[in-house]
């Protein structure tokens, strides 16, 4: 035992590199998730004594992961208050009037949104917009989805809070003794990449496929839209207004028709005045339906008896193939008459049911939104002909609190930009504000945090610290130093950027950032170079990955929505990687 301990003590640096190499192999093979590999790697360092208990848990004092978590919550608040959906609706309204000009506006808007928000919800919201823009402009949707995603990724490289990778690198750099990064310190270099990238996308669009997706449908595979009916209440302020004047319709809700006295009209209804009891046939997502339900202007959906309450808990349930009402009208479904419930929407995969809610013929796998009392919901859960009965995840937007969420995020940006307080503290104060003002409920706030990302970050911080303490970083720098000693200082920027880019096309961006930051700083000190431009090159190079569907988390979203092939990403991504990388590195050399 003493022999093994002594052996580990002598070859600490080499053993650290062996563990790192095994982790790299595990990352590439993808048999386990990057988070699992990172945690196991950190545990291996701890078990071998290369990282003691105190140092292992010291990574939890790093502000970067906590700041990332706070920014997840702030993004969630903007979604919960309907702010992002409202922006998307405005874009769609604009696209209907000026579709080609809207493409340029969407590009600019994507850069701005991605610079301050998590890319993932931005891309999710933009996917159906791209499908609609493709219809309006006549451009193939496959020529729009990859460029939209690439612009979102590049936009995330414009500010320090644009991606979690930027925050991780900045946090580690501060722990290494570097001056803290400001929120806009990387902006000139990120904008250089954005400008070059957009120009490259315009010139290289011929490399993108033009065939239509075979699986996504017209909305990019959106599976949350429901057919519902809005019944105008007798005391509604909307009585007497024209159908076309309603502001509820946009990207999230589309008007299908007007039903009055049992007759359905689908055309020429925009100038029709609304009467009490009118039924508006609407196709909308769950959140929009819940928001309309709380507005008080409408009764939502279908009930067997007029006295059925409009409130209650909302659940989702799927019709089992064995349901006795298969093929019958929804109005005749047994539980609608036996229980005090209201069906407020029906979703059918890849098909729009109809002609209206009551006359829809029930099919197996139809998904229903049902509102009812607690007793009625318990009865539905016991119904053998319903599958997956559970509380609906759809929540009503809180538009009246949108200004609070916007102001909170704006304050984070401004206060950190003028160095009043650090970005981490500003983000945490903003989270406190949006929680106490109920822009978002606590359980929704915690659900908005991607725990997998935070665990990965903490684990890789531990691995990076272990490599440094074991002497592995110094050993690697010693190997690299003779090779770069005679190289000009500017070449280090290109080397770090493209090395980070290459690794991030294969591995997790955050893992690459956590591993390379201490190595980059140590290498700069060893060569007598300024580490700041190198660290910025690492930030952007680890995120601006376009050549594979796994290079960045949003790449996989458009890969599936657009029904792309792997080679489609490679064909456009490699030249885009080169153009953006050369622009960023040149800006760093000239301005850094």
UniProtKB/TrEMBL annotation:
Q: Name where it mostly resides.
A: membrane
Compartments it resides in: Membrane
Superkingdom of the source?
A: Bacteria
**What membrane topology does the annotation report for this chain?**
Multi-pass membrane protein
Q: Which UniProt keywords apply?
A: Membrane, Repeat, Transmembrane, Transmembrane helix, Transport
Q: Please provide, in alphabetical order, the Gene Ontology terms of the cellular component aspect for this entry.
A: plasma membrane
InterPro entries in the cross-refs: Cit_transptr-like_dom, DASS-Related_Transporters, Na/sul_symport_CS, RCK_C, RCK_C_sf
Choose any GO biological process term that the UniProt entry carries and state it: potassium ion transport
Q: Where are the transmembrane segments?
A: 6-28, 35-51, 63-81, 102-131, 151-174, 186-208, 402-435, 447-467, 479-500, 506-527, 534-552, 572-591
Give all residue intervals belonging to the RCK C-terminal domain.
215-298, 302-386
Q: Name one GO molecular function term.
A: monoatomic cation transmembrane transporter activity
This one is known as TrkA domain protein
What is the organism of origin for this protein? Answer: Sphingobium indicum (strain DSM 16413 / CCM 7287 / MTCC 6362 / UT26 / NBRC 101211 / UT26S)
Lineage, highest ranks first: Bacteria, Pseudomonadati, Pseudomonadota, Alphaproteobacteria, Sphingomonadales
């Amino acid at each position: 035992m003493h022999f093994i301990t002594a052996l580990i003590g002598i070859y600490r640096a080499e053993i650290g590199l062996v563990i790192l190499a095994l982790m790299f192999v595990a990352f590439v093979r993808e048999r386990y998730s990057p988070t699992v590999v990172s945690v196991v790697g950190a545990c291996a360092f701890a078990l071998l004594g290369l990282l003691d208990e105190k140092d292992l848990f010291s990574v939890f004092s790093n502000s970067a992961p906590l700041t990332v978590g706070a920014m997840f919550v702030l993004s969630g608040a903007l979604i919960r208050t309907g702010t992002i959906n409202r922006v998307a609706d405005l874009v769609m309204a604009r696209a209907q009037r000026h579709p080609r000009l809207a493409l340029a506006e969407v590009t600019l808007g994507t850069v701005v949104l991605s610079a301050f928000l998590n890319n993932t919800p931005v891309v999710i919201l933009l996917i159906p917009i791209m499908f609609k823009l493709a219809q309006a402009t006549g451009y193939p949707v496959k020529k729009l989805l990859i460029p939209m995603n690439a612009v979102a990724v590049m936009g995330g490289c414009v500010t320090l809070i644009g991606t979690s990778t930027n925050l991780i690198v900045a946090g580690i750099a501060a722990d290494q003794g570097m001056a803290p990064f400001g929120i806009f310190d990387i902006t000139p270099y990120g904008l250089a990449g954005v400008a070059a990238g957009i120009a490259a996308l315009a010139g290289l669009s011929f490399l993108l496929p033009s065939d239509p997706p075979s699986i996504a449908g017209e909305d990019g595979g959106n599976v949350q839209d429901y057919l519902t009916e809005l019944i105008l209440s007798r005391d509604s302020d909307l009585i007497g207004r024209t159908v076309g004047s309603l502001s509820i319709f946009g990207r999230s809700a589309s008007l299908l028709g007007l039903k009055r006295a049992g007759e359905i009209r689908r055309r020429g209804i925009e100038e029709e005045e609304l009467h009490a009891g009118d039924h508006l046939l609407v196709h909308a997502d769950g959140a929009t339906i819940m928001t309309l339900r709380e507005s008080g202007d409408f009764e939502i959906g279908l009930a067997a008896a007029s006295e059925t309450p409009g409130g209650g808990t909302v659940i989702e349930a799927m019709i089992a193939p064995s349901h006795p009402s298969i093929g019958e009208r929804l109005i005749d479904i047994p539980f609608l008459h036996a229980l005090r419930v209201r069906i407020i929407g029906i979703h059918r995969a890849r098909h729009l049911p109809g002609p209206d809610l009551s006359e829809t013929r029930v099919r197996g796998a139809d998904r229903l939104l049902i509102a009812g009392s607690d007793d009625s919901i318990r009865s539905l859960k016991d119904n053998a002909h319903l599958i997956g009965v559970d509380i609906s995840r759809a929540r009503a937007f809180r538009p009246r609190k949108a200004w609070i969420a916007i102001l909170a995020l704006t304050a984070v940006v401004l206060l950190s930009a003028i160095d009043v307080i650090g970005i981490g503290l500003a983000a945490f104060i903003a989270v406190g504000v949006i929680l106490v003002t109920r822009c978002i409920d606590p359980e929704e706030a915690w659900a908005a945090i991607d725990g997998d990302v935070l665990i990965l970050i903490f684990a890789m911080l531990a691995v990076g610290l272990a490599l440094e303490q074991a002497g592995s970083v110094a050993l690697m720098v010693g190997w690299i130093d003779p090779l770069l000693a005679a190289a000009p200082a500017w070449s280090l920027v290109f080397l770090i950027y493209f090395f980070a880019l290459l690794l991030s096309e294969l591995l997790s961006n955050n893992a690459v950032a956590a591993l390379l930051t201490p190595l980059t700083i140590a290498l700069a000190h060893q060569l007598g170079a300024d580490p700041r431009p190198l660290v910025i090159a690492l930030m952007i190079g680890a995120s601006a990955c376009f050549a594979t569907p796994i290079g960045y988390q949003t790449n996989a979203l458009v890969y599936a929505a657009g029904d792309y092939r792997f080679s489609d990403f490679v064909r456009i991504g490699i030249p885009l990687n080169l153009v953006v990388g050369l622009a960023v590195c040149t800006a760093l050399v000239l301005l850094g």
